[in-house]
Amino acid sequence: MSNKVTRRHEDLVVALQAGVRGSESLSRHLGVSLVTLRRDLIQLEAEGRLVRTFGGAVPVGGHEPELSLVQRKHLHREYKEAIARAAAALIRPGETVIIDGGTTTAALAEKLRGRSDLRVITNNLQVMATLSGEDGIELVMLGGAVRRLSLSTSGPLAELTLRRLSAERVFLGTDGVVAGRGLCEASNDQIQLKELMMAQASKIYVLADSSKLGRSAQQAWAPLDRPWTLITDAKAEALQLDPFRQLPTVTVLCASDDGSIADS
Q1: CB distance 209 to 80 below 8 Å
Q2: CATH says 3-59 is which class?
């Protein structure tokens, strides 16, 4: 690494510690393009010196506030649509699938409209609203406490119902996914339900756009101990994907805009 890049990285960390947060502000402060800034953020997060967030970064130890559902629904929408198309193509007639909370998983439900001979188990109220009018899809809603920020349920009641069910596939949303560590979320209740969803399904899929790869901005974690598949968007960079590719238990799928799988 050149001395110029090293100095820029040091300046970036100092700026974060001083309270500069957003990508636009950091780009102006450092006098670099957004493309260069993004690469620097990815590199520094890989080194454990910062945590990338939606639209910027925070110093290590910082906690990212959760965005509202409306904000998250429109964030990276085209990536989420591509991931949802790729995920929907994996689901076969006659299967039972678990669909987790989140906006990317909600986009998956939209791609299942018009399908038949499916059973969908979900804690996602957006999924329930999307598929409730589909005669060919049996819906099972996991009860429990409703998180207003995500319009999803969790807690003991949801877990009690899920323990009596099983599925061929589970499709998980996440605030961030780190190779070798797992999924991060804002609350332990969310994590406990995700762990149970994985235990009750034969195959595990994590739906995460490229902004969530390597992100550890929340403080509750679910390890990914079994073989699993990461479905992300084709804009993900090699630096983000390589830590996942190096794990023998992980299959990486990168979805193009039309939902087809690009070379990963």
Answers
A1: yes
A2: mainly alpha
For 69-262, CATH gives 3.40.50.1360
Domain boundaries, the chain: 3-59, 69-262
How would you classify residue 10: left for phi > 0, otherwise alpha for psi between -120 and 50, otherwise beta?
alpha
φ, ψ dihedrals at 178, nearest 5° = -120, 125
Please say whether the dihedral angle defined by the alpha carbons of residues 84, 85, 90 and 96, taken in this order, is positive or negative: positive
Which tokens sit at 244?
């996942």
Query: pLDDT 10s per residue in the chain (264 long)?
Result: 677 888 898 888 878 766 677 888 888 888 999 999 989 888 888 877 777 776 777 766 555 556 565 666 656 789 999 999 999 999 999 999 999 999 999 999 999 999 999 999 999 999 999 999 999 999 999 999 998 888 899 999 999 999 999 999 999 999 999 899 999 998 899 999 999 999 999 999 999 999 889 887 777 899 999 999 999 999 998 888 999 999 999 999 999 988 788 755
Q: Return the DSSP state at 210.
A: G
Q: Pairing mode, if any, of strands 201-207 and 228-233? A: parallel
What gap in Å lies between CA 183 and CA 193, rounded to an integer? 12
Question: Hey, what are 204's tokens?
Answer: 């595990």
Can you point out the beta strands (E) in the chain?
50-53, 56-59, 96-99, 118-122, 137-141, 145-147, 152-154, 167-172, 176-178, 182-185, 201-207, 220-222, 228-233, 250-255, 261-262
